[in-house]
Write a structure and sequence with these properties.
Blueprint: H1 2-12, H2 16-28, H3 30-45, H4 58-81, H5 84-103, H6 114-131, H7 135-143, H8 149-173, H9 179-202, H10 208-228
Helix pairs in contact: 1-2, 1-9, 2-3, 3-8, 3-9, 4-6, 4-8, 5-7, 5-10, 6-7, 7-8
């Protein structure tokens, strides 16, 4: 599982959490599973970053991260006030709507406005605080643009590293990261990193169309997972 999830992340720039979190949470419990997934998400990106940082739009990444930090506490508040069943259906509906829009061929042209970027970041943070799902809004934000898939992958890879670091820091501050979890992460890190490197080597072989279709499949998986978990 770790190797395959690493391949998906190395190839697409996202998607590993969607695959690992349900499995690890079922085996070790949610408290350990989520933290373990975050640690492995950071590990898999380490060998990928040197090859993508030169393609990253740092101003947009910065805006997205600032906005995401605002959205996280809002998502937590909503989580405490809303029935989980309602939120699962709502998240699934939002993600599937985004998939349908992307599948229709809709794109926005040119550089996104600052308000659009901030909205994507807040939405990502909101879903992260609500359900630990920061990915769908950011994936939609980049896939709906007119950038090459090489730049899309570079920005996704970089964004999720910083988001995961913030989340891990929050878990550490609350004393929720146990020694056993760190040991397990170190044990699995070589496998997920090897998968990431392999996925990164496969990426240049893919066409723009294949990459975007795979991204849509991953987003559908997120929508289905929101209903199952």
């Amino acid at each position: 599982m770790a190797v395959f999830a690493g391949m998906v992340r190395g190839f697409s720039g996202f998607g590993a959490a969607m695959m690992m979190t349900p499995v690890f949470s079922a085996i070790h419990g949610p408290a350990v599973g989520v933290v373990l997934c975050l640690l492995l998400e950071i590990a898999v990106a380490l060998p990928l970053l040197p090859g993508v940082v030169r393609l990253v739009d740092w101003r947009r990444i910065g805006l997205l991260l600032v906005a995401a930090a605002v959205g996280v506490p809002v998502g937590n508040i909503v989580l405490t006030l809303t029935e989980p069943e309602v939120m699962r259906w709502a998240i699934s509906a939002v993600v599937l709507s985004a998939v349908a829009l992307l599948a229709s061929g809709w794109r926005f042209t040119g550089t996104p406005r600052t308000t659009t970027t901030l909205t994507a970041g807040v939405s990502s943070g909101f879903l992260n605080g609500l359900a630990g799902m920061a990915g769908p809004p950011i994936a939609f934000y980049y896939l709906a643009g007119d950038e090459t898939v090489t730049r899309v992958r570079a920005n996704l890879t970089t964004y999720f590293v910083f988001v995961d670091l913030v989340a891990v820091a929050a878990f550490f501050s609350r004393g929720l990261v146990q020694t056993d979890t760190l040991v397990l992460a170190l044990f699995l890190a070589p496998a997920v990193m090897a998968g990431g490197v392999l996925g990164g080597k496969l990426f240049p072989l893919a066409t723009d169309t294949f990459y975007r279709r795979l991204a849509l499949v991953l987003l559908v998986g997120v929508a289905i997972g929101a209903l199952i978990l």
